[in-house]
Amino acid sequence: MTRTLVAFHAHPDDEALLTSGTMARAAAEGHRVVTVVATDGDLGLASDEYAADGRLGDRRLAELRESAAALGVARVEWLGYADSGLGDVTHPDPPGRERFIRADIEEAAERLAAILREERADVLLTYDRNGGYGHRDHVKVHVVGARAAELAGTPRVLEATVPRDSINRALDLAAKIYDFPPEFDRDSFRRAFSARAEITHRISVRRYAAAKRASMRAHASQASAEGGADRTLAAFLRIPRPLYDLVFGREWFVDPARPPGGQVSTDIFEGLP
Q: 263 lies in a domain?
């Protein structure tokens, strides 16, 4: 049976890191895959090559479309919000748009719910309650996504995450070969994402590692930095394929409707009516 998967993310490039393997796998298996971003990522860190003319948001949306093509995504949508940026200071709203952190939850949820209804989505991918590593736009995606699924009657919501012990083990392994860039907060990953006991779905995506790598590579602006230093995304792309496939060969999700501690599922569509 053909299903429809909608992946909801905060910014262009978020899909590449957390859900691109699952999206590529679903598309390769004949399912319809849709990706939706809340913001255009206009406050993302990038070198002047990409950001000096003030059109970074447009470039990042174009990069998202390139990533989607690599993954086999059938439709790409932007909810129309502006990036809220890192930290506690919220920049003024750009003309005609609102920073996502200021958006009314019901209004934002209805924008997403309209897409879920139109697509008759079977599964919605969002983020765990920590918003992964805690970015406020990611936390809001968690809240807005949950409400949108309620409004649309979407049968299943899966919250993209990583078991803390697994990601820290992988980062320790990678650190033996690579020096992470200055903005990479290693300690933040020791308190981010979800405990292993909370994981309900573990998806093997190793066969789709090439598509995942192409998705990461599409987001060139987010691998850029002034002075030639690597950003985190660029550091990931420098990992040799055998090690890359091992580090990024699985993706994890939490089904908030399921009690933790049961058997971990290996198929995001398993058990749907």
A: no
3-state SS assignment for residue 201: strand
The residue range of the domain holding 88 is: 4-254
pLDDT tens by residue, 113-128: 999 999 999 999 999 9
196-223 pLDDT, tens digit per residue, is 889 999 999 999 999 999 999 999 988 8
Q: Which two tokens stand for residue 174?
A: 């990678």
| CA–CA gap between residue 19 and residue 212 (Å, rounded) | 9
Nearest alpha carbon to residue 201 among 258, 120, 116: 258
- Helix or strand (DSSP H, E) at 179: none
**What's 216-231 look like in SS3?**
HHHCHHHHCCHHHCCC
The total number of structural domains that make up the chain? 1
**Among the listed residues 247, 248, 219, 245, the one whose alpha carbon sits nearest the alpha carbon of residue 234:** 219
* Residue 74: burial class (beta carbons within 10 Å; 0-12, 13-18, 19+): middle
pLDDT tens by residue, 123-167: 999 999 988 877 899 999 999 999 999 999 999 999 999 888 877
Tokens linked to 156:
């299943």
* Cβ count near 82 (within 10 Å): 25
b/e burial code for range 203-240 (CB count within 10 A of at least 16 → b): bebeebbebbbbbbbbbbbbbbbeeeebbbbbbbeebe
Is residue 217 domain-resident?
yes
Residue 215 belongs to some domain of the structure: yes
Instruction: Show Cβ contacts of residue 245 under 8 Å, excluding neighbours closer than 6 positions.
Output: 206, 209
**CATH number of the domain within which 185 lies:** 3.40.50.10320
Q: Which two tokens stand for residue 94?
A: 């750009």
